Amino acid sequence: MSSILAPLALTVSTSALLALPLAPALRELKSKRDAHPLATRKDDGRIANFAASLRSHCNKLQVLLFPNGYPEENSFLTAGESRVFVVVRQFPIESQIHDFVLCLNPIQLPDEFHSTGDFYSFSSVETGQRNIFRALMSESEIQIGKDTKVLRWTHAETSLTVNENCALFGRASANRFITLSNHCTFERIYAPMIYTSSDASQLPLRMESDAFSKLARSGIGRMRVHGHAHLCAGQQHRGDLVSTRGLQLDEGSSVLGSAKANGEVHLAEGTTVDGSLVGTKTIHVGADSFVKGPVISEHEIRIGTGVQIGVPGTPTTISAPKIHLAPGSVLHGTVWARVKGRVGV
Amino acid sequence: MLLALFTTVVVLICIYTIRHYCFTISRIIGEQRHPYIDVDSADWPAVTVLIAAHNEEAVVGDILTALLEVDYPAEKLAIVPVNDRSQDRTREIIDSYVEKYPGRITPFHRTGGKPGKAAALKDAMAYVNTEIMLVFDADYVPGKALIRQLVAPFFDPEVGSVMGRVVPLNVGKKLLTRILDLERSGGYQVDQQARMNLHFVPQYGGTVAGIRKSALDEIGGWNENTLAEDTDLTYRLLLAGWKTVYENRAECYEEVPERWPVRVRQIMRWAKGHNQAMVGYSAALLRCSNVSWWERLDGLLLLGVYMMAPVLLAGWILAILLFYLGAPIGGGIAVLGLAAFTTLGNFAAFFEIAAAARLDGSRARIQLLPLTFLGFAVSAISVSRAAWQQFTASLRGEEMVWHKTERSRVAPVALEKSA
Predict the structure, then answer these.
(1) How many Å apart are CA A281 and CA A301, to the nearest integer?
(2) How wide is the angle at C-alpha B280 spanned by C-alphas B278 and B283, nearest 5°?
(3) CATH number for position B140
(4) Per-residue pLDDT tens over the stretch B85-142
(5) B167:A38 CB<8 A
(6) Do residue A292 and residue A165 come from a single domain?
(7) Cβ A41–B143 below 8 Å, yes or no?
(8) Which of A203, A285, A312, B288 is most deeply packed, by most CB within 10 A?
(9) What does R_g of chain B's alpha carbons equal in angstroms?
(10) Contact (CB<8Å) B40/A32
């Protein structure tokens, strides 16, 4: 090799070696395959969005399926590529349906019924025991039988009643009220009123106190306690209360404001928090207590019997990875357990 | 003497390298903290949204349109564009919105006073009648659920301020915007969220952010004598026992600089403001009993973050000097070399950005990682220059001047297409 070519070859090969790691970068810079802005959240996150979407789909389907009026018998119909099982009267029906189900009238489902497609009803739905649904929606009320599972979401336009041992994965909502029973599990539920047992509807409901409204108007103020905060029985604290460690409210005590603990929170029987309640560890809300809400824990929330969270007309949120609700309580708004929510003694 | 200085530099760089690794590992395998993300229903409080606007004719219409469409009770949302001495059509555009949407927008046209965002916000407080206020720069485009996401943490009575995530909108424009997109990902998706995970000190960033008015009043309001009112506020709140919360899912589009001179001016302003806070609050933070030891450590490291560029450059110069002076620092050079590599190299800041890109689910853009070295190099020099200017200005007793970041947007954004 000539004396000129050798250093030239060395320079070229060295440059190529140095440039090699940059090749993918330069390629991406030129081709711009991934140069769009990151997608941010567009929806409003409302729990009933799935229901609204299915309702809209059903309204469009109706036009396609029933151009000449409703059928008189249960039948499989097609609309485009969708196959729809239209239910006009009470089943006999096979135990499993894989198509979309559209019910025109009130329906009572048999035990062991499985629906792997979406199930939509213009009227009320009463499921059997040990049913499984992918998604279940009614424009009226829904009663879910014992040991039933809903895998993605359920929505009732009026009320949703859930019997013992049911599992509600994903979202469950109703526009009026939800009644849960013992040993039910859930993830995200919403209704203006949520009863954790059928007798909870008898609980006398409290409204926001006048004293708190007055205080809120004049400026709540805040007290920060270094260490563990403790209110003795019957004691009242006016203003927000923040503890750098745990928080304990003894029987009948109250916070006329919000409370926060960087540790465990223990509310004994008959306590009141007129604002929000926040804890980094477990929050225990004792029997017959009242929290206006929201109630937020980074670990677990345990709510006792006779507890009221939120006030009528002002829904709030109970949020924690794990939530345990005792029967006999009334909650207003959203209960969101990222890992598992459970009703039980 | 030189050897002692050199050893200090090596130790500092190692500390920051470990910090980067801790954050990234927390983000990849640690427990993620989003305590307020599920607050879905609530008695939402009244909120004032302040839009800082100085010569923002190119962008102010977009943010007003977006805010008018957010999912928040309209009767509880006061929109206050703070038109700070604009010379362009900003006033005209704001007034056209006021006329078109009666009762929804309360404009504040500021015609005089001290320049700077903090000074403008201070004057705008006369328009704030709510306990919670949110602050946006005019080039941001909030999504529908953003206001609720930023307000939710204020149900916690310990929270004084909230910071959302900034997402660049004009990513594909230039090499610079692509580099900044990756840097922002690293800064928010990993750095801020890791601080949130670890109960450290997430930083209030001055935009896509919220403040509790009673907390602001307690610490004496806005400090108009700072170039970085955001860092200043973060530390004053921390010292007074208030928490800043980072909400990673409260995302908002912003326009990043498209030209290098604009970027250089922006980062120099940030560096100077941050260094001001470092001088002002380091000692107070060390003495403060309101703050945990972990928060003190993280807070101090965060305060010193813009000093690391000149420290690194000084380390390189010291290493060369000591080498030619024949000082016995063989191992030290090796450590500095490794630390320099891991700070500006593949295994710390780069590792953080790579982790962020993966968490964001973006794939091809990660290939640009080697080019982010260019961004780091420009930042290191600019930040060092800023520190030097600040040092010399303080010797001369000169006051620092606030510079607005220039916008490049020429037409309203079309988010559906871009996302």
Answers:
(1) 9
(2) 85
(3) 3.90.550.10
(4) 998 899 999 999 999 999 899 999 999 888 888 889 999 999 999 999 999 999 888 9
(5) yes
(6) no
(7) yes
(8) A285
(9) 22
(10) no
